[in-house]
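Researcher: Sequence of Alanine racemase follows. Predict its structure.
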Amino acid sequence: MAEPRAEVVIDLDAVRANVARLVELAGPAETMVVVKADGYGHGAVEVGRAALEAGASWLGTAALAEALQLRAAGIDAPVLCWLDAVGTDMRAAADAGIDVSVSTVEQLKAASGARLHLKVDTGLGRSGCPAALWPELVRAAAESGERVHAIWSHLACADVPGHPSIDAQAERFARAYGEALVAGLEPRRHIANSAATLTRPDLRFDMVRTGIAGYGLNPVPGGESLTPAMTFRSSVVSVKEIAAGESVSYGHTWTAERDTRLALVPVGYADGVPRLLSGRFSVLLNGERRPVRGRVCMDQIAVECDAATRPGDEVVLFGPGTRGEPTATEWAETIGTIDYEIVTGMYRSRVSRAYRGRR
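Model: Prediction complete. Tokens:
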């Protein structure tokens, strides 16, 4: 059997353990697990099923098309979608029993027949109804007779515990809730993301929306112990010797100081390995960290190795870190981004996906 060219292996038992812990923290509040972007690169359907088995009661997606894929796979749990282009036919949401987020009166009309979550902008400055227009939206929703299940918002800086914007947004959310009640609505509330679920029990309200934490990546440094569910692996395709003074890869940014053995690994930036990692990272090969030499190419990297390395040997690019391998968080910190971007970057056609744990 051929070794994988580029493969992510998803530990569904880790997903279940992470979600079970988040459900426990949420207490009486319901738990939504967000599975947008194909489950942050982990597989929306498989993660969704695992999350529901672990006690989550909702799933969340950005696009309606993502929500419909869950329904097509037989998942009948409550699902909320919240971001689609103007003109998207939202009748499919009502037909499939998918909840829809709306932030304007126009969106309210377009989503007629679906159960609604009214979103208010409390300070993130992205989607969500501005405070000045909120009374009009909640009044229109009340008068329309549409089913309004909840009001909601999203926090900007919850991953920085103690940031003053968190309390400011909470106060604005409380005012928005009061205005919804005055308009005659009796909505539920949700504002807590992963970080707030972990650090702000006062903001869990009726439901929490957990994204990255369900996949085992903690947005709050030094916080709750979670287990990363994704391992990114490949294998050696060839091994060669280069002499001292020879250079490797485009631009000759690395030159061997001594005779060196190199393993060629068939993954590159087309497979989710950031080119910015060039000269700054290592992989796990035969139980040891081995440095990657030269620039990351579109399809390949060169790893310094020892005499025991053979074609077919497994190469772990990142994983949970339990074997000493790099982690997605390590990659992110090295290049100045977030681990969300690293794992979601595995949502690629050339990277195959396998699962461990009960499916």
